[in-house]
Automatic annotation (TrEMBL):
Belongs to the ZPR1 family. Residues 32-188 form the Zinc finger ZPR1-type domain. Keywords: Metal-binding, Zinc, Zinc-finger. This is Zinc finger ZPR1-type domain-containing protein. Signal peptide: none annotated. SMART domains: Zpr1. The keyword Transmembrane helix does not apply. The lineage of its organism: Eukaryota, Metazoa, Spiralia, Lophotrochozoa, Mollusca. One of its GO terms (molecular function) is zinc ion binding. InterPro entries: Znf_ZPR1 (IPR004457), ZPR1 (IPR040141), ZPR1_A/B_dom (IPR042451), ZPR1_jr_dom (IPR056180), ZPR1_Znf1/2 (IPR042452). Gene3D superfamilies: ZPR1, A/B domain (2.60.120.1040), ZPR1, zinc finger domain (2.20.25.420). It comes from Littorina saxatilis. One of its GO terms (cellular component) is nucleus.
Length: 200
């Protein structure tokens, strides 16, 4: 069922640290229908463990016929007893690379820009990845907007520029991940220095 798990005799634990160098998780593969072209594609499911967080299921789909791909993240556990709000101050390229688990109930906010991305599908990304995705989302409708509503388009253009300045780390900024189900997480590169990691 799974590909290259027999490389050595050492048994693979079901849950693996996602940052482990010998990243080689147990993968379950299932043929499944492509939502794009309706040919047969392949869904791969694997369990993985995110350090200092918990186990999650990563589901990735790929269609060899039309090239469609997507990946989704689902918490392997139940709803947590408490919601979480992570507020992290982003100052360095290392902060930009912090891993973010965004569950399908989590909203992401950047207070200095009054920006909020509502919950969507669960995903595993980084701070940089989340901002880049938000820029892509805003850019997507700009050509149409410039025709239909040039005034709004111009305002969004200015906003996109501000988002791009965040990526360049021109000034430190806060990023908030707010998840009432408690299944989101922002990696802390300094796990034992609580002064740099604000729990609200
Ligand atoms: Zn397809």
């Amino acid at each position: 069922m799974s590909g290259d798990t027999e490389k050595d005799a050492k048994p693979n634990p079901l849950f693996r640290d996602i940052t482990a160098d010998d990243y080689d998780p147990e993968i379950t593969e299932m043929a499944s229908l492509c939502v794009n072209c309706e040919e047969e594609g392949m869904t791969r499911l694997f369990l993985t463990k995110i350090p200092f967080f918990r186990e999650v299921i990563v589901s990735s789909f790929q269609c060899d016929h039309c090239g469609m791909r997507n990946a989704e993240l689902m918490p392997a556990g139940r709803l947590q007893d408490k919601g979480v709000v992570y507020k992290v101050n982003i100052q360095t390229p290392q902060d930009m690379n912090r891993q973010v688990v965004q569950s399908q109930s989590a909203a992401v906010r950047i207070p200095c820009l009054e920006f909020e991305a509502p919950p969507k599908k669960g995903l595993l990304s980084t701070v940089e990845g989340i901002i880049s995705q938000a820029i892509d989302d805003l850019n997507q409708c700009q050509p149409l907007r410039k025709v239909q509503d040039p005034e709004v388009a111009a305002k969004i253009e200015v906003f996109i520029e501000k988002m791009q300045n965040l990526l360049k780390l021109e000034t430190p900024f806060d990023l908030v991940v707010d998840d009432p189900t408690g299944n989101s997480f922002v990696e802390n590169p300094y796990p034992f220095d609580f002064s740099v990691f604000a729990w609200l």
